[in-house]
């Protein structure tokens, strides 16, 4: 009984802190929504967000090292390579505090005819911040976008949001 009560309490506490799901999908595209409540003020979360080298997983880079990632709030979410560069997404809107919108295909989606829009919204939530990432992807991919890519994209973005949350709260993503 003690174990059951502990599990229920843990689910109640952790359940409100992060949510992830593929909210819509078809052969032509999909939408992934990731939400987390961060125990940090919006300004601190925004500052962490603007430094992807501190929180993005090196496993999900082309160079193998997240230190090569950068945001230019007026243009590019880019990665420096030894002999080149990757433009992951273009910043299309950044208000400096609550909203970041980017256009582009992340990771292996760059090898398809797909394009996407990633919106990140920060809202005050008590003493913390609710962060919502919404990634809409459409276009062509052999085998269908949703069938091949929706699940993996959901997993990767969920991991990145969890790392952003931890970085904003503790200064370290792991």
How would you explain this protein's 3D organization?
This protein is of the alpha+beta class and 174 residues long. It has one domain: Alpha-D-Glucose-1,6-Bisphosphate, Chain A, domain 4. It is 30% helix and 40% strand. The chain is built from 4 helices and 8 strands, in the order αββααββββββα. The protein has helices at residues 2-15, 42-49, 52-55, 145-170; strands at residues 18-26, 29-38, 69-71, 76-81, 84-94, 99-103, 113-125, 128-140. An 8-stranded antiparallel sheet has the order 1-2-8-7-6-5-4-3, with helices on one face. β5 and β6 form a beta hairpin. α2 crosses α4. The two termini are 32 Å apart. Residues 1-16 have low confidence and may be disordered.
**What is the strand arrangement across the widest sheet?**
1-2-8-7-6-5-4-3
The amount of helix comes to 25-40%
As for the number of domains, it is 1
Return the string of H and E elements.
HEEHHEEEEEEH
| SS-derived structural category | alpha+beta
Give the arrangement of secondary structure elements.
Elements: H1 2-15, E1 18-26, E2 29-38, H2 42-49, H3 52-55, E3 69-71, E4 76-81, E5 84-94, E6 99-103, E7 113-125, E8 128-140, H4 145-170
Antiparallel strand pairs: 1-2, 2-8, 3-4, 4-5, 5-6, 6-7, 7-8
Helix pairs in contact: 2-4
Structure described in brief:
This protein is an alpha+beta fold and 174 residues long. It has four helices and eight strands; from the N terminus they run αββααββββββα.
